[in-house]
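Q: Got a minute? One more chain.
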Amino acid sequence: MNLSIIIPSYNEEESLPELIAWIDRVAQANQFTYEAIIVDDGSTDKTWQVAEELHEKNPNVKGVKFRRNYGKSAALNTAFGMCEGDVVITMDADLQDSPDEIPELYRMITEEGYDLVSGWKKKRYDNVFLKNIPSKFFNWTTQRVSGIKLHDFNCGLKAYRKDVVKNIEIYSEMHRYIPVIAKWAGFTRIGEKVVIHQKRKYGVSKFGWNRFVNGYLDLMTLTFTNKFKKQPMHFFGLWGSVSFFIGLIIAMILIIKKLVLQHSGAFYRAVTDQPLFYLALLAVIIGCQLFLAGFLGELITGYSNNRDKYLIEKTIK
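A: Always. Here it is, folded:
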């Protein structure tokens, strides 16, 4: 099978028939064999009923229905597990992503050798202050952190080699960082294509300001786990040691200062009467706790590392 087209959907009953018809026209014109997987993410309208009707008319349409709204990451991760196409395309159900982009995305994967190609909505029809400016700042930050030169990390229209989606896992709201996750998994051939962004035809946007707050928290989580998941002691042990020795040095300075003043007969304050002593004590305690957290983390990851799956690109037999 040439293509798996994954369509996460939440209350998109109006747009799905038009989208599936458009996809089918493009597939037939390019002689693609394909499957279109609609993931109903806990919709409260007739999205699932529409998906069933579309399947009856077109056997290439498949579907998954969640009991409740789990989010786009869960929808994509579930569909990644069941898709069978050599090239996997993800696109939003709201008709803002054009199926006419599919042939070129497919070509870039199969002929140019990309692992992943991300769409770039260079010209957008969204509200400038609600989406455009925050999106540019978000993409700039993600570029700097990941080292991936993409202009639109969160574009729903992306193409992947099958190996990529079968060997990455996304959760929470990590779908916007799929290129980063793929790169850190060893899939480094990442490209970009300018795509058409169309105005929303049906329904309302699911966008909310909390997306940007959650997005930056997820980026911090992703960066931390990528660097220290296997060896948490490298983080907790380092800063625990720094905190412990800072507290220890301050305490020793206070004690030595007291002994010198006592020996010379000058006035001195008891070490425990000085606020700085308690700050030093706090630093020592925090250092011990961080070090212990790193030690426990090493015990946990030491067990899980034995069960890790390592991606092997080639073998010689």
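A: The chain has two domains: 3-228, 233-307.
Q: Perfect, thanks.
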